[in-house]
């Protein structure tokens, strides 16, 4: 049987956690880079009531982003409502595999505190949170990528030794 190390960045980090919950028997370990667990729901819920009502009426929400040519992403309101069914940070997260979370402390999209919340809520006892003092959201600097590769290599070595 094959076991996988899932690696997810930003929203992919949230999806990584959801996949691990859905198929725990297939997961060897997780590596999250600025994992955005519950992010869209959290940001939406912090909007003024008028903006939330407008998004519901128009069935879309324009989320500002410097990563989009338009300066925002258009998110269907139905996506936000569905995402509410997949929030993880309000209760224990029954994931027991090793987890490594890497987060930049200069991340302006997803606060590094989200990685700390994930670490606090997962049931795994093998959890490391690595904070990069000058790291940005995408963690795309040469040293950030080296750290990611090292982290995955280290997990592979650990799992090979155990298995």
Automatic annotation (TrEMBL):
Q: Which InterPro entries match?
A: AB_hydrolase_fold, ABHD10_acyl-thioesterase, Peptidase_S9_cat
The yes or no answer to whether the keyword Hydrolase is present is: yes
Name of the protein described by the UniProt record: Peptidase S9 prolyl oligopeptidase catalytic domain-containing protein
Family membership:
Belongs to the AB hydrolase superfamily.
List, in alphabetical order, the Gene Ontology terms for molecular function in this entry: hydrolase activity, hydrolyzing O-glycosyl compounds; palmitoyl-(protein) hydrolase activity; serine-type peptidase activity
One BP annotation, GO: proteolysis
Q: Name all Peptidase S9 prolyl oligopeptidase catalytic domain ranges.
A: 6-131
Query: What SUPFAM superfamilies does UniProt report for this protein, alphabetically?
Result: alpha/beta-Hydrolases
Q: Which keywords has UniProt assigned to this entry? A: Hydrolase, Signal
Q: Which GO terms describe its cellular component?
A: mitochondrion
- Where would one find the signal peptide in this protein? 1-29
């Amino acid at each position: 049987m094959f076991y996988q190390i899932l690696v997810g960045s930003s929203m992919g980090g949230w999806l990584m956690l959801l996949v691990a919950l859905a198929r725990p028997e297939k997961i060897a370990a997780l590596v999250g880079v600025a994992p955005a667990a519950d992010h869209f729901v959290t940001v939406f819920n912090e909007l003024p009531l008028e903006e939330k009502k407008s998004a519901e009426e128009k069935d879309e929400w324009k989320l500002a982003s410097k990563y989009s040519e338009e300066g925002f992403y258009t998110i269907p309101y139905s996506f936000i409502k569905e995402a509410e069914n997949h929030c993880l940070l309000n209760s224990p997260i029954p994931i027991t595999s090793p987890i490594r979370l890497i987060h930049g402390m200069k991340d302006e999209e997803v606060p590094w505190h989200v990685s700390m919340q994930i670490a606090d809520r997962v049931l795994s006892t093998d959890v490391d949170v690595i904070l990069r003092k000058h790291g940005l959201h995408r963690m795309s600097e040469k040293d950030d990528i080296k750290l990611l590769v090292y982290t995955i290599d280290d997990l592979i070595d650990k799992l090979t030794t155990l298995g």
